[in-house]
Amino acid sequence: MALAIRDVREHDLDAVLALNNTAGRSILALDAERLRYFYDCADYFRVAEIDGQLAGFLIALREGSDYASSNYRWFATHYPSFVYIDRIVIANAYRRHGLGRVFYCDVTSFAEVRVPLLTCEVFLEPRDDVVLLFHGTYGFQEVGQQRMPAAGPLVSLLAKELPSFAYVRETYLDHGGLPAEPWLAERQRPAHSGPSVGETHS
After folding, report:
1. Number of C-beta neighbours around residue 34 at 10 A
2. Residue 84: in which H helix or E strand, if any?
3. How far apart are CA 22 and CA 187, in angstroms?
4. CB 133 within 8 A of CB 170
5. Which of 1, 88, 102, 189 falls 20 to 30 Å from 44 in CA-CA distance?
6. Which residues does the UniProt record annotate as the domain N-acetyltransferase (predicted)?
7. What is the CB neighbour count within 10 angstroms for residue 181?
8. CATH no. for residue 114?
9. Residues 151-184: pLDDT tens digits?
10. Residue 85 and residue 75: Cα distance in Å, rounded?
11. 118 φ, ψ to 5°?
12. Domain that holds residue 79
């Protein structure tokens, strides 16, 4: 089994959209416009390929985005610098095989050289103990709760401190920036950017 984690490409978007919208009730649906916003604006948008097949994806944004999600905005009002995981989706055929942890390791590697905090939220309605346990064992702590708009579900707002960031900041970011290594590079986004969009989170 050959696994590759790579930045999303434009030709992946139809497959990403289909995967998102068949993921079940724990993932809010996307439309093409909202997915295009992520393609244009997300700081982290990577897909997993297994033997050439799309097996999953993860989307994350840094602070300073115009993203209108109430959960993203909660973190923006409480923390000056963070990476926010908007959604992770794994295809049914590849669930319970550790791919979620692979993605979380990858997004942590992305985040810890840029920010002191990795954030996300999980639904408490309906409660999913597997998801809660996954995040708890990965080092996330609850920092708040809120109900999503339009009488939406109650969510637990989670944050994970990234202790490596202090070293990276003091050694590199305060002294000219990160080394010019491919694994440290920013995602190459399209030159144009989309409009702000509303609630789309998982």
Report:
1. 18
2. strand 83-90
3. 27
4. no
5. 1
6. 3-163
7. 7
8. 3.40.630.30
9. 889 999 999 999 999 999 999 999 999 999 999 9
10. 11
11. -110, 130
12. 3-176
